Amino acid sequence: MELLVFMGRLLIFAGIAVIANLLFENHLRAASQSIVKRPLEALGIGLLTIVALPFILLFFMITVVLIPAALLLIILFVVICLYAWIAAGYELGRLLAQALKVNWASNWTTAIGTFALSLVFFGLSSLIPCVGWIPGAIVLAIGIGAVIIYHGKLFQNDSKSNRHALLKETNATNQSIPQEVKLRTSSTPTSAPAEKPAPDSNPPAPAGPEAGRAEISGSAPTANTEEKTGEKPVVPEVIEL
Question: What residue spans define the domains of the chain?
Answer without folding.
Answer: 2-172
